[in-house]
Amino acid sequence: MTEDCNLNCRYCYAEESTKLKLMPDEVVAKLIDELAALDEDEVKFIWHGGEPLMASLSFYENVLVQQKKTFKTERRFSNIIQTNGTLLNEENISFLTDKHFGVGVSLDGPPAVQNANRPYFGGLPSFTDVWKGVTLLLEREVDFGVLAVVTQNSLCQVEQIFDFFVQHNIKTFGFLPYLSFTSGSLHPLAVSADEYGLFLEKIFKKWVELDDPNVNISNLYDCLDGLLGRTPYKCEASGGCLRCFFAINQSGDVFPCSRFVGEDAFCYGNILDQTLNTLLNNSKAQKTKEMRQTALTECLECQWFSACNGGCLHYRYEKRGSILDPYYYCDSKKRLFELMKSWLKEKLPMSLPQKEWSQELPGNLLNSSLDV
What we know:
single chain, 16 helices, 11 strands
């Protein structure tokens, strides 16, 4: 919804642009009308950028007015904001909580990792300002989650990152690997498949050792859900890619997801010119869906397919610009699934996966995951 940002993250995929910095009221009204017209049971608006809190609160007040006017009941829509945390203050936290916005904070870990990955323009560190905002959220007992990007700066501090979040009472967090290629070579800050796989394995071992059902690591819960026959939540593992998720930029252009924003080959068109339903079913959208189905052909027979659903489409596209390429982190995920399955077999006297569980199971974490 905005290209404005006050940080200069070393892995940011957004490009410098002279286009609109903030989504105009015309586009806001149109996208809300179009989403309501899809007649879905529930629509989730995830506001991000850029830094969404660089927009004034009046922007979000207008959003709420439009949503309440357009949707039949408030239960049909919800709002989530993904912020870098530097601009959180008493005023906007009160607004977000009063208006029932979900809150996500981008924080890569303790100061050394955060400041290396996510400095201000000019190189000044950002951790202190982010932590002020996080502290306010904790003091107000706001239910929020943290998203940490995994880079080369993270790999030597895996345990420290986990301990930092847990010791500071951050109960919900997840990890996103940074992947980028330059002339076919892995970007110096990016993490390879082996490196990310080892990172997740270390995090998983720390997590099960802690055995605290209140600590939710979204990536790992998704994996467990998939292994236990449930539907994972996150887009890349849920099977909802190109079906339940899409992105609309501040100009009204529609893309398969936020990672493809700016890629002309994946721009379906603009909601100011055609209806959203038309754009999501036009020839470009259909071609993308067909290519994804082709890419998944080899995945369908994999024993782990229910746990990953072929992985993130952009992690196929990143290396050579083709979504027909293999999922880059496939092998590392398979090793993680093997580790998880071994752990589950120690806890469960039955084969996996299985959708229905009817007995008390050992381990606080396992009971939480199974929701029994």
